[in-house]
């Protein structure tokens, strides 16, 4: 076992004078070593064994730097999620490269927000950043982290802010450890009863995080529902042309941010600032939740050992290649590794797959597609003259989110009268769906603003309805997420609902199902059906929704079919 040196609370001074503290684990022997950097808002002292074993890394000849991001735990300054991590990330990378024990090559690692700190540093293009492994993180922190389709990802952002971001602030306010634990318990108790807590109107005055200004940024997010300049500066996808480093993107089909890794992979491959970045984007996507290490159990389904990832070894192979110039074989083979559910792992060369056949599956009914027992069907035949389907959306009785994480039987949702259900006949042979999934919906509403939701489901032989992917669109953002435009009540509009994507083999005898409704709460915030911004509404109105599927209104789900 190699001897290592550990330094704690090492100050790193940013360009504005703020000192961000870091812990350092490095070989005790004098020399120059590549640096692995983790920038975390979750307490650097807890990060020693998070994502990568720092002791093991130091024994393998790396210097590991784990830093509290600005305003978190030991670091100075004010915490403003995303916004300060561009310059701070750049400055920290360059500090790491300049230390006497460094060889000038820096890599970054970690998932979720710790993945975000990697991309935010990378768009600033620090010259000594050589490679990153951003796992389970977004490509756009407006549409994909805080909002999606113009709706607030309410349950995640409220619970994330309360459980992980606000609690340390209680300590910074001078509370004792016992008081802090008490406050944490209060917040957690609120989250145990998430649905009634988050039903507060107006949402902009939600009391959960207002006390002592625990999380002012949460209320800033509510004040910026549009994809305006507030978000643009830290929009990774908008800055793919500034990326200069190879990246190993890791995602999950049931992750909180499933769109992020494929978008970052494809975007930098196409538009990266340097050839080394464009040619060396890699992507791994498994059937995983937002967790580390990614578990093989996803909700109510166990994918078995085959679905697991030996995460530590993958990371060391990546960094040994890019920071030590050791041929580890990480570059051999295809750059994309996908887990096709009901089949297993497969290597590919691009995303989306070049051989994809995009096939529209059209909505059909005789006007009675409500509930699982309705007459809604789904087929590749375009509709003719058909009656529209109708349902009433009451924001005070929204469709509940069933299964906050992973695969769960959706039949309880499909029993509701305000959920339209469209299913194919049992498949005569296996059918693979791998790639982006979108729904084109023709609909009208009695309200001046409302939401429409969609969910793709794999129905088994026993009727089990396994959710694959879902999406939502707020009517006022149907044209652009940057600028709201209310709808005219009673007028039919075309809506595009992005379900992100999946990779699933529908087995023979299974059915493909699409659910259509107007709420998925508390996963997404409720639309009060009022003309004011949703977070500001103090009361709600009920909306009468009409879904058209006829020769003039070709409502359908576009499925990416893979043959052979």
Your description of this structure?
It is a single chain. With 564 residues, the chain is of the alpha+beta class. It has 3 domains: 4-139 and 239-348, Rossmann fold, CATH 3.40.50.1820; 151-224, no CATH class; 357-562, Galactose-binding domain-like (Jelly Rolls, Sandwich), CATH 2.60.120. The protein contains 12 helices and 27 strands. The chain has helices at 54-59, 85-98, 113-122, 154-172, 177-192, 194-197, 216-223, 229-232, 260-271, 275-279, 311-324, 411-414; strands at 4-13, 19-27, 33-40, 63-68, 102-111, 129-135, 147-148, 151-152, 247-252, 281-286, 297-298, 301-302, 336-340, 344-348, 357-364, 377-379, 389-393, 420-423, 431-435, 438-445, 451-459, 465-474, 493-498, 502-506, 511-517, 543-548, 556-562. The strands form 5 sheets. A 10-stranded mixed β-sheet has the order 1-2-4-3-5-6-9-10-13-14, sandwiched between helices. Strands 15, 16, 17, 19, 20, 23, 24, 26 and 27 form a 9-stranded antiparallel β-sheet that branches. Strands 18-25-21-22 form a 4-stranded antiparallel β-sheet, with no helix packed on it. α2 (85-98) crosses α3 (113-122). The radius of gyration is 24 Å and the shape is globular.
Short description:
With 564 residues, this protein is an alpha+beta fold. The protein has helices spanning 54-59, 85-98, 113-122, 154-172, 177-192, 194-197, 216-223, 229-232, 260-271, 275-279, 311-324, 411-414, and strands at 4-13, 19-27, 33-40, 63-68, 102-111, 129-135, 147-148, 151-152, 247-252, 281-286, 297-298, 301-302, 336-340, 344-348, 357-364, 377-379, 389-393, 420-423, 431-435, 438-445, 451-459, 465-474, 493-498, 502-506, 511-517, 543-548, 556-562.
């Amino acid at each position: 076992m190699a001897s290592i040196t550990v330094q704690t609370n090492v100050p790193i001074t940013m360009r504005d004078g703020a000192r961000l503290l870091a812990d350092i684990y490095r070989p005790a022997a004098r020399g120059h070593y590549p640096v692995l950097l983790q920038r975390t808002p979750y307490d650097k002292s807890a990060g020693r064994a998070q994502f990568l074993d720092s002791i093991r890394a130091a024994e393998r000849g790396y210097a590991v730097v784990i830093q509290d991001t600005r305003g978190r735990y030991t670091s100075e300054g004010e915490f403003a999620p995303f916004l300060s991590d561009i310059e701070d990330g750049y400055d920290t990378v360059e500090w790491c490269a300049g230390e006497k024990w460094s060889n000038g090559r820096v890599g970054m690692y970690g998932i979720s927000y710790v993945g975000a700190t990697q991309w935010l540093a990378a768009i600033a293009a620090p010259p000594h950043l050589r490679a990153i492994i951003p796992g389970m993180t977004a490509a756009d922190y407006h549409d994909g982290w805080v909002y999606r389709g113009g709706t607030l990802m309410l349950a995640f952002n409220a619970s994330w802010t309360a459980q992980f971001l606000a609690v340390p602030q209680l300590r910074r306010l001078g509370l004792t450890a016992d008081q802090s634990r008490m406050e944490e318990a209060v917040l957690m108790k609120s989250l145990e009863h998430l649905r009634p807590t988050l039903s507060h109107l107006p949402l902009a005055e939600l009391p959960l995080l207002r006390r002592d200004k625990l999380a002012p940024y949460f209320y800033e997010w509510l004040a910026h529902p549009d994809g305006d300049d507030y978000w643009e500066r830290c929009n990774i996808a908008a800055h793919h042309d500034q990326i200069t480093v190879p990246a190993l993107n890791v995602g999950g089909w049931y992750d909180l941010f499933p769109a992020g890794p494929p978008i970052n992979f494809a975007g930098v491959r196409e538009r990266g600032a340097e050839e080394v970045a464009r040619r060396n984007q890699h992507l791994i996507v498994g059937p995983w939740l937002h967790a580390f290490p990614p578990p093989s159990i996803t909700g109510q389904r166990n994918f078995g050992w085959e679905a697991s990832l030996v995460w530590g070894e993958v990371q060391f192979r990546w960094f040994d290649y890019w920071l030590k110039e050791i041929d580890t074989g990480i570059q051999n083979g295809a750059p994309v590794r996908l887990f096709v559910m009901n089949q297993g792992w497969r290597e590919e060369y691009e995303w989306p797959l070049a051989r994809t056949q995009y096939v529209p599956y059209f909505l059909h009914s005789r006007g009675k597609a409500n509930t699982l027992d309705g007459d809604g069907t789904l087929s590749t035949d375009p509709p003719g003259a058909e009656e529209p389907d109708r349902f009433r959306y009451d924001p005070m009785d929204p469709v509940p989110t069933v299964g906050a994480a992973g695969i769960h039987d959706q039949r309880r949702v499909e029993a509701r009268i305000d959920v339209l259900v469209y299913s194919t006949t049992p498949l005569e042979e296996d059918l693979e769906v791998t790639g982006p999934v979108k729904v084109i919906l023709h609909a009208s509403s009695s309200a001046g603003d409302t939401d429409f939701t969609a969910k793709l489901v794999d129905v088994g032989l026993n009727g089990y309805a396994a959710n694959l992917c879902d999406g939502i669109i707020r009517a006022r953002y149907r044209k652009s997420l940057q600028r709201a435009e209310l709808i005219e009540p009673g007028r039919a509009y075309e809506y595009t609902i992005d379900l992100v994507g999946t990779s699933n083999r529908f087995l023979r005898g299974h059915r493909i199902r699409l659910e259509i409704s107007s709420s998925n709460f508390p996963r997404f915030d409720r639309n009060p059906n009022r003309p004011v911004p949703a977070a500001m509404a103090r009361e709600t109105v009920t909306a009468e929704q009409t879904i058209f599927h006829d020769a003039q209104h070709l409502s359908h789900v576009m499925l990416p079919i893979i043959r052979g």
